[in-house]
């Protein structure tokens, strides 16, 4: 059972009818500022300046453990009472801070002004500030997006950041040959693996958004076909559509099945012959199958409960259910984008309880009542649940670890299996 | 607007959470946007707490701003009361909710809950974490502590212990030491707060004869209130180090009317003998830079100088509320205090002071690593490493033992230092190899590089004075002589010599200049 399918886009019989619930209460999620932690590492000449409060600064350093960096490529311009009382002009202050920053860091080519809850509430216009600063700072491109908690949940910060990049992407000539754009921050090693597979499939012109530095951002146009590598990129997809690019509907490249389906969407769009596709993916599929084998025993039949976090929950659940045979007790997700997740939802076992949104204490009640074998949750909940005897997996690691593609399928399963294995090891 | 790459303190509502999380039977309803819930992980991950902080967040979003965030707050408040059944609640706003001015205090009052509800006004754009903790504790004590009937004459002395919070630097272990001292003096403990106290416990604070203030940052405001309202005196001595602990014992004994002798003449700490033992001679005059919250910075400055014989070359704090005390202490050592919450300023001050040991926070540990200096962490902000599994107090006699080890271990052992000097030309023992306990990667020191053949022309000094026109040059023989000086003092010798030459506008540093400067700056 659960062998990876080679024709994954056909839904398995009886799948596709999920049991969807919506909740609107207290949420235990990060805000979009958290995305800076991985985005600044991806775009190596970009600096992220949060315009916010001491809370914003404290959040990022707590989430990132930034003390390890001598000079991190992110900082907070902390709004103080002088700014709020109108004693200081916020725009002048922001210009002063940005100028000081760029003076200190002449290596920075792209500066993001990142809006926060306080900057949104006082209606500080960061898009005008970005235009003004682009003109002032010369060699530095200044863009803005909002990572505020009132507008973005965790990974939506990446969506907002990438969407902000889209209008400035170079224009592809209308007569250009079709190109493939992979959208969503991936680890460099994963990008390189995908490049090799696409190349073997005969798709030579493959680009990534975001690129690894500001000068290398991909051109887009009407002949751009794009694949979302992450399920949380609603705004970025909309912005790309406006530039004339076309989204290739696909599951997400988590697990062997998801990866095959994702690659197959590109193969279909670029008219890759079936045999070529099989040849390009056979080795990867075989390696994933080998890597996943041992995890079917470790995770098969294990009951898993997801608290909402990154919007990766649906693809991850699909992977756990179909590739290692886990049972899904509840799949919490902050938002369910039905269009982008259509292929994923079709593959979930029938009747899977999916909860969109959150009411934290009610969800904790359900989790405690269900006593799952593994609870996937945020860092605020993990130790308290462990203390109640529930095995947990911190969800944030699923974003910081390379998990996409065939060669990471085993690593992905290991992330879920490790807490169970560790509990089995300990005799204290 | 202040450009901040890293911050020593969180916003003031984090301070309120430290108080609420330390207590039992108290719930905090915080009007805050989605995302502010990150604060939970400070407690569950850094401190490894096995319970969620007792905090309900309203987690409002943009769509709620157009509707009724006040209603959202009232609902959250009522639901939190129904679910958690606390003895009392504190209510307030985080930075964003402060801007939308919903008045959590007024809204909660309108609910007419059958428990005390204490509103907190914590101005997020002016104040910071420690102030927030202090203010929250003060508001709780003011609201809940009531006059209590006097105990019969002749009862054993009774005190409260005030100050320890959740996420405090070694508060858990310090508390054990304070209780030990009080028990040995024959003094009973009425209430410890905030750590472990319930609102009902706060109501009976008045039964005690006096208060022990462990951490003025969190407890001084509450203790001052109790002094005014309930006529309870409180301690001012901080029991850090042998001297601090002895002064604390004497002060407590006087407040309780008991004899301090049993404790003062008891076993005490090993620190005095360890410090007097000949092995410790090499510690004499070690240049130390101290930075932290005010309590720990002041305590460690005294331990370092009076109990280990170090020389204080820098002292500072990020706690502006206690700047006066820190400035006074620095002045007594003939130096200027660094009062700053910008770690880049602190880094610059450390560089300028050229210490041989840094005692600071986790950030100074990173700064010291970059500068190739040994360092020990002596203060919050806390890190998971600051919650060791073993008992590791900073206070009391055992705390003094811990401090001896903490301050001495990062330094090279005396004998090892001599050996390094003796064998410094040996291939596996050359200057480029840093002390093994400072990590595997060698510390890159400009002096460590073999670069000056005897016949080469003078090398320019690495830095020329930006104000003066003088370009400093080292004569080859002076440069060569400099390299004979043990590397751990060579940096200081170079900078002293250059300072000496610059002041005298000497264009070339000769062998004579080197030794003139040595005589000039000689200890």
TrEMBL record, chain A:
The protein's superkingdom reads Bacteria
Under InterPro entries, the record lists: LIPOR_BchN/ChlN, Nase/OxRdtase_comp1, Protochl_reductN
Q: Does the keyword Metal-binding apply?
A: yes
Please give the Gene3D superfamilies that the UniProt record associates with this protein.
Nitrogenase molybdenum iron protein domain
Cofactors (names): [4Fe-4S] cluster
Q: Does the keyword Membrane apply?
A: no
Residues binding [4Fe-4S] cluster:
31, 56, 117
Q: Which UniProt keywords apply?
A: 4Fe-4S, ATP-binding, Bacteriochlorophyll biosynthesis, Chlorophyll biosynthesis, Iron, Iron-sulfur, Metal-binding, Nucleotide-binding, Oxidoreductase, Photosynthesis
Annotated catalysed reactions: chlorophyllide a + oxidized 2[4Fe-4S]-[ferredoxin] + 2 ADP + 2 phosphate = protochlorophyllide a + reduced 2[4Fe-4S]-[ferredoxin] + 2 ATP + 2 H2O
How the protein assembles, per its UniProt entry? Protochlorophyllide reductase is composed of three subunits; BchL, BchN and BchB. Forms a heterotetramer of two BchB and two BchN subunits.
Question: Family assignment?
Answer: Belongs to the BchN/ChlN family.
Q: What does this protein do?
A: Component of the dark-operative protochlorophyllide reductase (DPOR) that uses Mg-ATP and reduced ferredoxin to reduce ring D of protochlorophyllide (Pchlide) to form chlorophyllide a (Chlide). This reaction is light-independent. The NB-protein (BchN-BchB) is the catalytic component of the complex.
Q: What is this protein's record name? A: Light-independent protochlorophyllide reductase subunit N
Q: Which organism is it from?
A: Methylobacterium aerolatum
Q: Highest lineage ranks of the organism?
A: Bacteria, Pseudomonadati, Pseudomonadota, Alphaproteobacteria, Hyphomicrobiales
TrEMBL record, chain B:
Is the keyword Oxidoreductase assigned to this protein? Answer: yes
Q: What is its EC number?
A: 1.3.7.7
Task: Summarize where [4Fe-4S] cluster binds, as residue positions.
Answer: 36
Per its record, the protein catalyses:
chlorophyllide a + oxidized 2[4Fe-4S]-[ferredoxin] + 2 ADP + 2 phosphate = protochlorophyllide a + reduced 2[4Fe-4S]-[ferredoxin] + 2 ATP + 2 H2O
Any coiled-coil ranges, and where? none
Q: Which HAMAP family match?
A: ChlB_BchB
Summarize the protein's role: Component of the dark-operative protochlorophyllide reductase (DPOR) that uses Mg-ATP and reduced ferredoxin to reduce ring D of protochlorophyllide (Pchlide) to form chlorophyllide a (Chlide). This reaction is light-independent. The NB-protein (BchN-BchB) is the catalytic component of the complex.
The family note in this entry says:
Belongs to the ChlB/BchB/BchZ family.
Protein name as it appears in the record: Light-independent protochlorophyllide reductase subunit B
Organism per entry = Methylobacterium aerolatum
Q: What is the lineage of its organism?
A: Bacteria, Pseudomonadati, Pseudomonadota, Alphaproteobacteria, Hyphomicrobiales
């Amino acid at each position: 059972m659960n062998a990876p399918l080679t024709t994954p886009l056909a839904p398995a019989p009886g799948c596709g009818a999920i049991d969807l619930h919506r909740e609107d209460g207290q949420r235990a999620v990060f805000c979009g500022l958290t995305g800076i932690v991985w985005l600044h590492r991806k775009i190596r000449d970009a600096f992220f300046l949060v315009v916010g409060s001491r809370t914003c600064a404290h959040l990022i350093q707590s989430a990132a453990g930034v003390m390890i960096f001598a000079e991190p490529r992110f900082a907070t311009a902390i709004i103080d009472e002088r700014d709020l009382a109108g004693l200081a002009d916020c725009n002048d202050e922001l210009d002063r801070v940005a100028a000081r920053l760029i003076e200190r860091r002449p290596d920075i080519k792209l500066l993001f002004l990142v809006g926060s809850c306080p900057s949104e509430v006082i209606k500080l216009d960061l898009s005008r500030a970005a235009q003004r600063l682009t003109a002032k700072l010369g060699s530095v491109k200044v863009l803005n997006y909002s990572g505020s908690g009132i507008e973005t949940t965790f990974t939506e910060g990446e969506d907002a950041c990438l969407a902000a990049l889209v209008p400035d992407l170079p224009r592809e000539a209308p007569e250009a040959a079709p190109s493939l754009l992979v959208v969503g921050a991936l680890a460099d090693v994963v990008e390189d693996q995908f490049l090799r597979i696409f190349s073997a499939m005969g798709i030579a012109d493959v680009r990534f958004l975001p690129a690894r530095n500001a000068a290398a951002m991909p051109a887009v146009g009407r002949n751009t076909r794009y694949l979302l590598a992450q399920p949380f990129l609603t705004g970025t997809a909309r912005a790309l559509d406006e530039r004339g690019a076309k989204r290739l509907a696909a599951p997400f490249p988590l697990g062997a099945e998801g990866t095959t389906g994702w690659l197959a969407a590109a193969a279909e769009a670029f008219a890759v012959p079936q045999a070529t596709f099989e040849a390009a993916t056979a080795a990867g599929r075989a390696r994933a199958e080998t890597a996943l084998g041992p995890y079917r025993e470790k995770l098969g039949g294990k009951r898993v409960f997801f608290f909402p976090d990154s919007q990766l929950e649906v693809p991850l659940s699909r992977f756990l259910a179909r590739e290692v045979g886990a049972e899904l007790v509840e799949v919490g997700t902050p938002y369910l984008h039905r269009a982008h997740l259509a292929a994923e939802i079709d593959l979930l076992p029938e009747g899977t309880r999916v909860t969109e949104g959150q009411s934290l204490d009610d969800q904790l009640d359900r989790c405690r009542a269900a006593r799952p074998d593994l609870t996937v949750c945020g860092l605020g909940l993990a130790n308290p649940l462990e203390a109640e005897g529930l095995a947990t997996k911190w969800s944030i690691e699923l974003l910081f670890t390379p998990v996409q593609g065939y060669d990471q399928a085993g690593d992905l399963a290991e992330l879920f299996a490790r807490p169970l294995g560790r509990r089995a090891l300990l005799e204290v | 607007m202040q450009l901040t790459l890293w911050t020593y303190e969180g916003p003031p509502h984090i301070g309120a959470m430290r108080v609420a999380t330390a207590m039992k039977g108290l719930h905090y309803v915080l009007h805050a946007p989605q995302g502010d819930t990150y604060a939970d992980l400070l407690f569950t991950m850094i401190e490894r707490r096995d319970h969620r902080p007792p905090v309900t967040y309203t987690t409002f979003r943009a769509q709620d701003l157009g509707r009724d965030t006040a209603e959202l707050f009232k609902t959250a408040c009522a639901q939190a009361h129904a679910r958690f059944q606390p003895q009392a609640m504190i209510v307030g706003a985080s930075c964003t909710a402060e801007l939308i001015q919903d008045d959590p205090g007024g809204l909660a009052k309108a609910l007419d809950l059958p428990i005390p509800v204490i509103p907190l006004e914590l101005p997020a754009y002016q104040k910071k974490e420690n102030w927030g903790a202090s203010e929250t504790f003060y508001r709780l004590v003011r609201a809940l502590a009531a006059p209590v009937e006097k105990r019969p004459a002749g009862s054993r002395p009774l005190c409260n212990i005030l100050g320890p919070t959740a996420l405090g630097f070694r508060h858990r272990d310090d508390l054990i030491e304070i209780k030990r001292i009080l028990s040995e003096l024959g003094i009973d403990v009425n209430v410890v707060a905030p750590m472990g106290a319930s609102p009902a416990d706060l109501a009976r604070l008045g039964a005690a004869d006096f208060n022990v203030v462990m951490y003025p940052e969190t407890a001084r405001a509450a203790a001052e209130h109790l002094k005014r309202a309930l006529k309870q005196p409180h301690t001012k001595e901080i029991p850090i180090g042998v001297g601090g602990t002895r002064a604390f014992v004497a002060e407590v004994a006087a407040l309780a009317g008991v004899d301090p002798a049993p404790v003062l003449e008891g076993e005490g700490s090993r620190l005095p003998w360890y410090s007097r033992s000949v092995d410790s001679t090499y510690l004499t005059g070690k240049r130390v830079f101290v930075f932290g919250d005010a309590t720990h910075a002041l305590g460690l400055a005294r331990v370092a100088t009076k109990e280990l014989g170090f020389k204080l070359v820098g002292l500072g704090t990020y706690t502006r509320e206690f700047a006066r005390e820190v400035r006074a202490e620095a002045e007594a050592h003939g130096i200027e205090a660094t009062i700053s919450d910008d770690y880049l300023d602190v880094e610059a001050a450390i560089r300028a002071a050229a210490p041989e040991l840094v005692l600071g926070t986790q950030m100074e540990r990173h700064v010291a690593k970059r500068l190739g200096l040994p360092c020990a962490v002596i203060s919050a902000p806390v890190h998971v490493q600051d919650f060791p599994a073993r008992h590791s107090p900073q206070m009391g006699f055992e705390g003094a033992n811990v401090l001896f080890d903490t301050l001495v271990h990062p330094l090279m052992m005396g004998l090892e230092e001599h050996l390094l000097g003796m064998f410094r030309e040996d291939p596996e023992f050359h200057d480029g190899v840093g002390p093994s306990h400072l990590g595997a990667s060698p510390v890159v020191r400009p002096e460590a590089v073999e670069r000056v053949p005897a016949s080469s022309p003078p090398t320019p000094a690495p830095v020329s004075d930006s104000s003066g026109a003088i370009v400093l040059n080292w004569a080859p023989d002076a440069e060569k002589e400099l390299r004979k000086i043990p590397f751990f003092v060579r940096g200081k010798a170079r900078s002293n010599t250059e300072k000496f030459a610059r002041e005298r506008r000497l264009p070339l540093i000769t062998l004579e200049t080197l030794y003139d400067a040595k005589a000039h700056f000689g200890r």
